[in-house]
Amino acid sequence: MQALTQFVKSLRHKKALNKLVNMSDEQISSALANAPFNVIMPGKVTKLYDIPTCVPQPYYLTQPLDHRRSLLRQVHMSETALDGMREAGALARHVLQVVANKVEEGITTEEIDLLVYKEVVKCGAYPSPLGYKLFIF
Fold it and tell me: pTM for the full model?
């Protein structure tokens, strides 16, 4: 435990930070094995999700985004826009309720992603983070 305490304190120094950056996941796990807290290590995404063709794809997958436009404040006041926001909010609430009932200790974020993906697609919607601003999941 004393070695861990010294290691953590030494992280304040740039040299130690460079050492940490160059350590493998296994080396970091080993160094923190006796820590009085849990360490979450990055995982590997096993597969990207395929979107069924019956689900309409958003414009940002086929057209380049105008990033300047995203800096402008957008106010949607039309009844059609407000209805769309209400529908999206209701879907988000539904998906959160379904997934929250299935989350338990030990579940991975990838498993949660899959639950969300399946429920959103089941409802006929496109999982909006997929492909948005070049994010892959």
Answer: 0.57
Task: Give dist(CA 106, CA 33) in Å, integer.
Answer: 18
Classify 30 in phi/psi space as left (phi over 0), alpha (psi -120 to 50) or beta.
Answer: alpha
Amino acid at 52: P
- Dump pLDDT digits (tens) for 85-122: 899 999 999 999 999 999 999 898 888 888 998 999 99
- Name the token pair of 11: 């992280």
Dihedrals phi, psi of 23, to nearest 5 degrees: -80, 150
Report the helix count and the strand count for the chain, using DSSP H and E.
5, 0
Alpha-carbon torsion, ordered 19, 20, 22, 26, to 10 deg: 130
Which of the 8 DSSP states describes residue 36?
S
What are the tokens at 113?
Answer: 């992603």
Phi-psi region of 106 (alpha: psi -120 to 50; beta: other; left: phi over 0): left
